[in-house]
Amino acid sequence: MRSGDAGGEVVDGSRLERRHKQVGFRDPHPSLDTFDFDFNKKMHRALIHELATGRFIAQREDALFLGPPGTGKSHVAQAIGRAVIQQGYRVRYREAHMLLEEIADATLDGTRKAYFADLATVPLLIGDDLGMRKLPHTAAEDLLEVVMRRYERVSTLLVGHSPKLSRCNWSAEGQHFTAAGGPGCRRRRPMIQLSRSLCLN
User: Fold this and answer.
1) pLDDT tens, 138-160?
2) Which of 58, 111, 170, 184 has the greatest number of beta carbons closer than 10 A?
3) pLDDT tier at 4 (50, 70, 90 boundaries)?
4) Partners of 172 in the beta sheet?
5) Percent of the chain with pLDDT over 90
6) Is the pLDDT score of 183 beyond 50?
7) What is the mean pLDDT of residues 44-61?
8) CB neighbour class for 10 (10 Å; exposed up to 12, middle 13-18, buried from 19)
9) φ/ψ of residue 87, rounded to 5
10) What span, in angstroms and rounded, lies between the C-alpha atoms of 66 and 176?
């Protein structure tokens, strides 16, 4: 079993249970074994199971699930997180608004640098519900900083709902992440290539 940024340790049952509790999943027992892939024909079963092997984490790659609410994205993302925990990886799950609240709190109490340093050590961060709520004006910059600090060091899996999210290169533009070359994109900020994408629109 694997743990840390790039490699493996055997993790006993009690330690696995602690990791499951610490990760912060919204669903109590997310699992690919019980997921009905026939519910959404656009769900790429082979890609999902390939992500669940954790190879993309070993390769320090990132991924994006994109589509409207109710298509199974969040459940599958959490199930992938659960699967890679079983392999010994540490995982952190946060809905976008919760992640931003944590960043805001760290900024106010003077621990922002330490917060980002800690976040950059987690092998897989799952950022869920991007585009579901109206976010503060600093949201785009804060989210971009999260991804940039982790890029090519550890893995990030983003789950987005906004029609302004796209499956290619990313920059922060106003309140949203938008695609490089897409409408309104001015290429003012660093670009990030997401290695794996699943579009359910």
Assistant:
1) 888 898 899 889 999 999 999 98
2) 170
3) very low
4) 177
5) 42
6) no
7) 93
8) exposed
9) -90, 0
10) 14
d(CA 35, CA 61): 24
Average pLDDT over every residue of 5-24: 59
> How distant, in Å, are the alpha carbons of 15, 20, 21, 47, 100 from that of 129?
28, 20, 20, 20, 12
* Short-list 88, 158, 154, CA closest to 124: 154
CB 198 within 8 A of CB 44: yes
**9 C-beta neighbours (distance < 10 Å), count:** 10
As given in the structure block, the two tokens for residue 185 are: 């994109």
**Residue 80, SS3 per DSSP:** helix
Strands (E), the chain: 2-3, 7-8, 63-66, 91-95, 124-130, 155-160, 170-173, 176-179, 196-199
The CATH superfamily label for domain 7-199 reads P-loop containing nucleotide triphosphate hydrolases (3.40.50.300)
Dist CA 68 CA 76 (whole Å): 14
CB 64 within 8 A of CB 160: yes
Mean of per-residue pLDDT scores for the chain: 77
| R_g over Cα of the chain | 16
End-to-end CA distance of the chain: 35
